[in-house]
Every structure is written in structure tokens, then in C-alpha cells.
């Protein structure tokens, strides 16, 4: 048991540290290429911080652990909004316009697609390829479209393109190693405590692999970079479904665990809708809503673990 706990702790530490290294390299390359702050937050930062989820879900699927693989995706999206967006908003109101524009609508569409696949009970290769095709189309549109407000000057990471690529690859290798240890330790702990793999995936694994998003969004919010903070969360949620679930299902089809429906599915859908509702009504995610999101997340975890 102690060795399994050590695997989980070590895996999470590697994911956090190496995820940050990976993002720094990606952002350096993106800035040198002249990408705007919002596009960087939405794609490179949002997707880069999702690499721990990708590696974790792939490794879990290959080891025959669909509960951890799918629970990681669903649980990470829930944590991204209720926990990470909640903590970020609690530190200071977060602008919500992006939630009502194209990118926010894509996130809601990806959530609806994932919810439908969960209700179907099986996510096969065709569904995985459909997700990847949707992601490719979204990326093409995103990189081709620029808005004047995206062109604000941002400090450029002090490294060359090649140095950025090297840092990115180093971070990626560390993330892969961390994900392997995390899955191995988490699956053994689940067996030892007779807890379902889905619950482990929805809680320990999901929160652990979402730590890079939490660090990135909080740091961005403290620096007054609300666009990067909200873009990171939107981009991460889109990539979790269309990219991570898409790649995982295309490589290794998943059977949906029975305990993934019910409360978890309802929270998954409501968590995606709530920020958009606040953005529509208030134009932002106020601080009190941030505290409410965090409280809702704690209640959800208690409900599925108890």
C-alpha cells in the first residue's frame, strides 16, 4: 500500500512539475511565432496542460482500466470548472464573454457529445475519430481567425524557438513517466479499498491531472490575465473530450462503467452550463459564484465517494 501511495504522490508531482515545463516550452514557441494571448491560452496552454490527462487516459485504457480512462476525462472537466474556475473566480471576478462566443459554444457542444456517448454506453473507434475530426476543424478555424483585442502585447518567454522545443519535449517525457506511475498506484489503491476504478478516475486521478490547469489559471488571474485564465479552462475542456477521449477511443474503444451515469453525468452537464449562464446574466463569473462552484465540487466528491 505504501508503495502505491508513493507511486500516486510521485506521479502527481511529476505531472505538475513537468506539465509546467511543457507549457513554458510551448508558450515560448507560440510567442515567437506571433500568436495572440487568447489563442495561446486557448490552444497551447489549454491543450498543453491537458497532456497529463492524455497520457493518463491512454495508459489506463491500454491496461484495461476504462473507469480510470473515462473518469479522468469527465472528472477533469468537472474539476476544471467547479474547482479551478471556482478558485480563480473566488480570487477576483473572471470575465465571461469568451464563454458565450464561439469557443464557449464549442466547449458546450463537446460536453453534449461526451454526455451522449456516455448514455450510449460504449465509445468506439468511430466515435473517437469523429471527436478528432471535430477537434481538427476547430483548430483550423481558431488559428485562421484573429480579433483586434487578441493583439495586446505580451512579454515573450526568454528562450529561442529551439530551446522552447527542447523544453517542451523534456516536459512531455516527464509527463509520460508521471502518468504511468499515477495510473499504476491509483488502480492498486482502488483494489485495496474496494472502490470502483471510475470513482478513482473521477477524483484522485482527475484532480491530480488537473493541477497544471489550476496552477496556470491562478497565476494568470493573479497577474490580471483573465483571457489566458478562461482560455486555458475552455481549451482544456474542449481538448479533454475531442482530443483525449477521441485519441483514447480511437486507439482503444471504451465500455462506459455503470457508475459513470447518474449523479456524475448530471454534474458534468450542469458544470458546463453554469458558467455560461452567469456570463449571460452577469457578464462575468462573480466571486460569490466562484465560492459556490468550489462548494458544489466538494459536495459532488463527497456524494460519489460516500
From TrEMBL:
It is found in: Membrane. It is a multi-pass membrane protein. It comes from the Bacteria. GO terms for cellular component: plasma membrane. The chain crosses the membrane at residues 6-27, 39-61, 112-141, 161-183, 229-254, 260-281, 288-305. The keyword Nuclease does not apply. One of its GO terms (molecular function) is calcium, potassium:sodium antiporter activity. Residues 5-142, 165-304 form the Sodium/calcium exchanger membrane region domain. This is Cation:H+ antiporter.
Amino acid at each position: 500500500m505504501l508503495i502505491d501511495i508513493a507511486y500516486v504522490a510521485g506521479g502527481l508531482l511529476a505531472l505538475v512539475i513537468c506539465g509546467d515545463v511543457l507549457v513554458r516550452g510551448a508558450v515560448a514557441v507560440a510567442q515567437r511565432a506571433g500568436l495572440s494571448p487568447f489563442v495561446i491560452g486557448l490552444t497551447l496552454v489549454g491543450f498543453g496542460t491537458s497532456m497529463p490527462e492524455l497520457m493518463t487516459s491512454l495508459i489506463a485504457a491500454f491496461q484495461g482500466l476504462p473507469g480510470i480512462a473515462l473518469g479522468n476525462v469527465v472528472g477533469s472537466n468537472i474539476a476544471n470548472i467547479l474547482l479551478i474556475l471556482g478558485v480563480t473566480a473566488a480570487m477576483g471576478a473572471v470575465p465571461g464573454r469568451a464563454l458565450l462566443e464561439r469557443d464557449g459554444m464549442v466547449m458546450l457542444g463537446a460536453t453534449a457529445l461526451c454526455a451522449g456517448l456516455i448514455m450510449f454506453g460504449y465509445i468506439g473507434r468511430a466515435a473517437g475519430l469523429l471527436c478528432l475530426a471535430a477537434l481538427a476543424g476547430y483548430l483550423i478555424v481558431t488559428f485562421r481567425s484573429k480579433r483586434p483585442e487578441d493583439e495586446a502585447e505580451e512579454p515573450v518567454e526568454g528562450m529561442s524557438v529551439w530551446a522552447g522545443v527542447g523544453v517542451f519535449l523534456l516536459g512531455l517525457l516527464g509527463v509520460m513517466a508521471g502518468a504511468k506511475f499515477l495510473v499504476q498506484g491509483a488502480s492498486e489503491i482502488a483494489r485495496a479499498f474496494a472502490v470502483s476504478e471510475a470513482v478513482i478516475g473521477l477524483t484522485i486521478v482527475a484532480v491530480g491531472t488537473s493541477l497544471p490547469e489550476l496552477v496556470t489559471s491562478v497565476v494568470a488571474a493573479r497577474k490580471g490575465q483573465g483571457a489566458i485564465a478562461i482560455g486555458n479552462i475552455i481549451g482544456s475542456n474542449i481538448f479533454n473530450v475531442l482530443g483525449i477521449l477521441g485519441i483514447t477511443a480511437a486507439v482503444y474503444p471504451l465500455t462506459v462503467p455503470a457508475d459513470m451515469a447518474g449523479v456524475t453525468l448530471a454534474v458534468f452537464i450542469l458544470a458546463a452550463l453554469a458558467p455560461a449562464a452567469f456570463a449571460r446574466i452577469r457578464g462575468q463569473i462573480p466571486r460569490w459564484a466562484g465560492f459556490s462552484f468550489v462548494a458544489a465540487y466538494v459536495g459532488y466528491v463527497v456524494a460519489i465517494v460516500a
